[in-house]
Amino acid sequence: MTNNLDPDGLFGQGLRITVNDSDGCTGFGVEGALTSPAAEELRKCWKQVSIATPYPERLSVDLTSMTDIDSAGKELLMDMYRTGVKLVGSGIMTRAVIEEIMGRR
Predict the structure, then answer these.
(1) What does pLDDT average to over the chain?
(2) pTM for the complete prediction?
């Protein structure tokens, strides 16, 4: 099941979050800029899903379509990573962000 939480982008902030449940795993898709205040919307989604999913290792965030990130977005991804959420992405910027977060665990 895929759920597009904001089909027009987060109130004009340029972020689209999708949630995909399959085979007991939940994935968040992040498209656009993961910047404040949009990062707080992803945090809210993550917290809601986390309540229903007691196994954080079954959660992932696909950052392949992320176009920008600020300190609030990085802090959120670091919080997610610390709880066991898998960070996935490709591209130079995205891989650099993921490597930075994984190195600061």
Answers:
(1) 86
(2) 0.84
